[in-house]
Amino acid sequence: MEGDIASMGQFIGAGLAAIGSGAAAIGVGHVAGNFLAGALRNPSAAASQTATLFIGLAFAEALGIFSFLVALLLMFAV
Amino acid sequence: MAEEAHSEGSGLVFHPLDQFIVKPLFGEGPIHWYTPTNVTLWMTIAVLCIVAVFVFGTRGRAIIPTRVQSVAEVIYGFIYKMIEDVTGHDGVKYFPYIMTLFLFILFSNYLGLLPTSFTPTSHIAVTAVLGFGVFIIVTLIGFVKNGASFLGLFWMADSPAILRPVIAVIELISYFVRPVSHSIRLAGNIMAGHAVIKVFAGFAAIAAISPVSILAIVAIYGLEVLVAGIQAYVFTILTCVYLKDALHPHH
User: Fold this and answer.
1) How is chain A split into domains, by residue range?
2) pTM value?
3) Chain A contacts of B17, Cβ < 8 Å?
4) What residue in A sits closest to B187 (Cα-Cα)?
């Protein structure tokens, strides 16, 4: 019985951790969208800022990957 | 728990994480540090491909480059310009290290996209060595170049005096989390992408939804080709950013 409750908690926790991936998707979309908005206003400055864009994307995305990792750990490692 | 989940199954024909199991190449048995496994095989193939493109491909040193030579030149120029832009002229000295990192990650990522191949960069054990290597080297460079004034990186001189100790603690924590996020970002992205492809490949066994799932595999595979390149780029550019912090801690 106790094992059942524990594995139920595991699955619920993994599902909750998946919300984090969606939140990271919002963050990545925000970064890319704002970059596009800025780039359309001043296209000549856009090319020099792609490095900054990718750094921003990487930082936003890393947090989503962390939550994915938590989900994987709950499912397979605990 | 992993075994249990494996045997119960979730309706899939195979487990989506089976592709990441490290197996010895010859026979069964325990894996020691010297055992040739599929990881070492694909790392070796990646290194051989890099040698083929960058040593043998550019051997002619033609004025009008051949196709392989121009690929090598484009990659070389791309990384060189990136280091110059991000870290400045004194970062160019570390070009060989950063180029090595980029090429190894790029070739492992792309070779891992071949069907039935193995991706070394999908393992945190591999990327953690790369990430912590960057962390240790960058910290050493920072202290050797700047001495104790490297600690000024954590002490924000232009913030209000009351906040400075708090900010110093936060900066210190974020500095030590860097190698963790640096390595997990690469491994997590690659592993997640490959696992998603396998999940859809499992759905392809069900006749009713197999056309949809095969289309989804094609689409996700295209995305993965993009991700493989971008993650190699991101790993390298973050290395450049960390190197810039070590060389110029006050900017």
Assistant:
1) 2-77
2) 0.85
3) 76
4) A65
